[in-house]
Amino acid sequence: NAGVTQTPKFQVLKTGQSMTLQCAQDMNHEYMSWYRQDPGMGLRLIHYSVGAGITDQGEVPNGYNVSRSTTEDFPLRLLSAAPSQTSVYFCASRRIYGYTFGSGTRLTVV
Amino acid sequence: AQKVTQAQTEISVVEKEDVTLDCVYETRDTTYYLFWYKQPPSGELVFLIRRNSFDEQNEISGRYSWNFQKSTSSFNFTITASQVVDSAVYFCALSVGNQFYFGTGTSLTVIP
After folding, report:
1. Which of A97, A105, A106 to mutate to test the interface with B (most CBs of B within 10 A)?
2. Nearest neighbour of B103 by CB, restricted to A31, A42, A94
3. Helix (H, G, I), strand (E, B) or coil at B25
4. Does the first or last residue of chain A, that is N or C, have fewer Cβ atoms within 10 Å of its Cβ?
5. What is the mean pLDDT for each group of 10 consecutive residues in chain B (112 residues)?
């Protein structure tokens, strides 16, 4: 099925642990992005990519790394998780201003 | 700077009532896109509509309608004859260039 696939759906981390949230799309979209959703704050852009090998920061990039080696994949890395990174994370891809979102990853850092 | 404001944090209506969700945006760019997304309790984001800055025509889709007014920088969303299944959080969003800005959302509860 065409769309944006995020894994895992749920994750609990201990402070200081590292992990990668996976995002893959099969629509050949050039633009992909990561957002975090926190209560009362809507969704905020973390990082985005306009194509393989090109990434840039969004509104809240600190504590997160991204890379884009292929058009299909755009992983989000937390190198040293902090409780402030407890959130729901959404990946999205876009083509000509049509956004498709993944189903989200609920991350808890204890 | 770009900004989207959804002043209504929570709204409750009785089933079959009409309800309007407000959205006010700020941007100095002349080319932009506006969106509405629905987030039901299951958590996924469901695309409802996209409107570009050059198209002020209002749109109706079934019980949903959208009113885009550049003069007031608003993009309001009306649900006619609301149903329990409309209960969700609704997000208005603005896209300018490669950046995407969400409002803080309006939580709609439709009471049977």
Report:
1. A97
2. A42
3. strand
4. N
5. 94 97 96 94 90 86 93 96 97 89 95 96
